[in-house]
């Protein structure tokens, strides 16, 4: 899955920029990612509230905001090919929880994935 690669790449990014992201965002995010509509969702958690941040697969922290999005669309977000506001308005991404926290999470926080497609 593209999402597995994306969140694996986020870990080294947090080692260098995590403290800055934590200071800027101060929230925990979850991504519920599916291959096809109605299919099984994989959960990825991104903690940008504590320490230098942490990212990984699973539901291991209480999220402030949850993004539900397809594997293809999360990749498009990371590659800056899909605007999050447009994705939300077009129903390509659903958001639950704290909307103020959700709007702080911008695609530039995700590592670009050009050339890493599965």
Q: What is the rounded Rg?
A: 13 Å
- The share of residues in helices is 25-40%
Low-confidence stretches: none
Helix and strand composition category: alpha+beta
What's the number of extended β-strand segments?
Answer: 5
Which strand order do you get reading across the main beta sheet?
3-2-1-4-5
How much of the sequence lies in strands comes to: 25-35%
Shape: globular
On the 0-100 scale, what is the average pLDDT? 92
Please describe the biggest sheet, giving its number of strands, its sense, and whether it closes into a barrel: 5 strands, mixed
Number of helices: 4
Distance between the termini: 7 Å
Q: From N to C, what is the helix and strand string?
A: HEEEEHHEH
Provide key terms for this protein.
single chain, alpha+beta, 5-stranded mixed sheet
Can you describe this structure?
Strand 1 (27-34) and strand 2 (41-48) form a beta hairpin. Helix content is 37%, strand content 26%. With 118 residues, the chain is an alpha+beta fold. The chain has helices spanning 2-25, 71-78, 84-89, 99-104; strands at residues 27-34, 41-48, 54-57, 65-70, 93-97. It has a 5-stranded mixed β-sheet with strand order 3-2-1-4-5. The chain contains 4 helices and 5 strands. The radius of gyration is 13 Å and the shape is globular.
Brief synopsis:
It contains four helices and five strands. It has helices at residues 2-25, 71-78, 84-89, 99-104, and strands at 27-34, 41-48, 54-57, 65-70, 93-97. The protein has a five-stranded mixed beta sheet with strand order 3-2-1-4-5.
